[in-house]
C-alpha cells in the first residue's frame, strides 16, 4: 500500500476484508522481563478502529507473528509468546 495509508495490507478471509498494519522488531528481551516492547508510532496518534483492524507484529527473536485486534487505543505492546498475547502468537485468525 502507499505510505499515506494507515494500513499496510488487506487480508481477504473469504468472509471479509481486514486492514492490517504490519510491524517488525529485531529487539531482544531484557534478562529480567523476557518480553519485547514495540511502539506503534513516533507520535501520540492512535490507529483508529476505522483505519486499522489488526496489527501483525513480527519478532525475529520469538520467530513469529503476533496478530492483535485493534482496540483503538494502543500506542505500544509488550510482547511475549507466553504472556498476555500468547493466544495471538502465530495464530492467523481474523474475525
**What is the CA-atom radius of gyration, in angstroms?**
13 Å
Low-confidence stretches: none
Question: What percentage of residues falls in helices of 4 or more residues?
Answer: under 10%
Strand content: 25-35%
* Helix-strand pattern: EEEEEE
Indicate the structural class. mainly beta
The main β sheet shows up as: 4 strands, mixed
Question: What is the number of helical segments per DSSP (H or I, 4+ residues)?
Answer: 0
Strand order in space, largest sheet: 1-2-4-5
Basic shape: globular
When the domains are counted, the total is 1
- Distance N to C terminus: 22 Å
Mean pLDDT: 88
Q: How many strands in all?
A: 6
Summarize the structure.
Helix content is 0%, strand content 35%. With 95 residues, the protein is an all-beta fold. The model has no long low-confidence stretch (mean pLDDT 88).
Give the SSE layout.
Blueprint: E1 9-12, E2 17-25, E3 36-39, E4 54-59, E5 64-69, E6 76-79
Parallel strand pairs: 2-4
Antiparallel strand pairs: 1-2, 3-6, 4-5
Amino acid at each position: 500500500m502507499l505510505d499515506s495509508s494507515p494500513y499496510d495490507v488487506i487480508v481477504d478471509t473469504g468472509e471479509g476484508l481486514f486492514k492490517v498494519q504490519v510491524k517488525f522488531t529485531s529487539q531482544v528481551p531484557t534478562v529480567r522481563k523476557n518480553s519485547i516492547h514495540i511502539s506503534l508510532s513516533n507520535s501520540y496518534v492512535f490507529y483508529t478502529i476505522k483505519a486499522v483492524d489488526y496489527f501483525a507484529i513480527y519478532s525475529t527473536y520469538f520467530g513469529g507473528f503476533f496478530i492483535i485486534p485493534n482496540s483503538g487505543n494502543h500506542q505500544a505492546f509488550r510482547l511475549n509468546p507466553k504472556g498476555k498475547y500468547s493466544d495471538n502468537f502465530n495464530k492467523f485468525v481474523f474475525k
